[in-house]
Design a protein that fits this description.
The protein has one domain. It is about 5% helix and about 40% strand. The protein contains one helix and eleven strands; from the N terminus they run E-E-E-E-E-E-E-H-E-E-E-E. It has one helix at about 85-95; strands at about 1-5, 20, 20-25, 40-45, 45-50, 55-60, 65-70, 100-105, 105-115, 120-125, 135-139. The strands form two sheets. The protein has a nine-stranded mixed beta sheet, with helices on one face. Strand 6 (about 55-60) and strand 7 (about 65-70) form a beta hairpin. It is globular.
């Protein structure tokens, strides 16, 4: 079922979801960067951001991960979804409890919410059939 926004969509369990070797709320360690080097690190008011090609990671001041995103890089979720997979596969993995919206330049977003963990998984598609980018974040 498609709902208007995250206040009206049912919760999906994303507690153990990760993007590649990175999981929300875990402390960021340099060993996990091996496959993503070189990463550009930037200090921000509320933490740090790291980026390489189309991979992006953000931490809080304590260096705990608060958001991740990946596009063309072959980074799979812990549930087995990768960019280039179909949205149909995403629905088989995560179910039908999501809402959608469109954003110019990014395409259509399918958003899953985990209310208990306060996690959000956004799956982007520029052609309405194929996963082009994935964002995992706290809200």
């Amino acid at each position: 079922m498609v709902s208007v926004n995250h206040h009206f969509v049912s919760s999906t369990n994303l507690e153990n979801e990760s993007l590649g070797p990175f999981q929300l709320q875990e402390s960021l360690t340099e060993e996990k960067f091996v496959d993503f080097a070189p990463l550009e690190k930037r200090e921000q008011d509320d933490g740090y951001s790291y980026s390489a090609e189309d991979f992006f990671l953000k931490t809080d001041k304590e260096n705990n991960i608060v958001s991740l995103s990946a596009g063309r890089l072959p980074v799979e979720t812990s549930s087995g979804l990768n960019t280039g997979d179909t949205l149909k596969k995403a629905r088989l993995i995560y179910g039908d409890k999501y809402y959608t919206y469109r954003e110019m330049g990014l395409g259509q977003a399918s958003v899953y919410i985990d209310r208990d963990q306060r996690y959000k998984l956004t799956i982007w598609s520029t052609d309405d059939t194929t996963v082009s980018n994935m964002w995992l974040s706290r809200y």
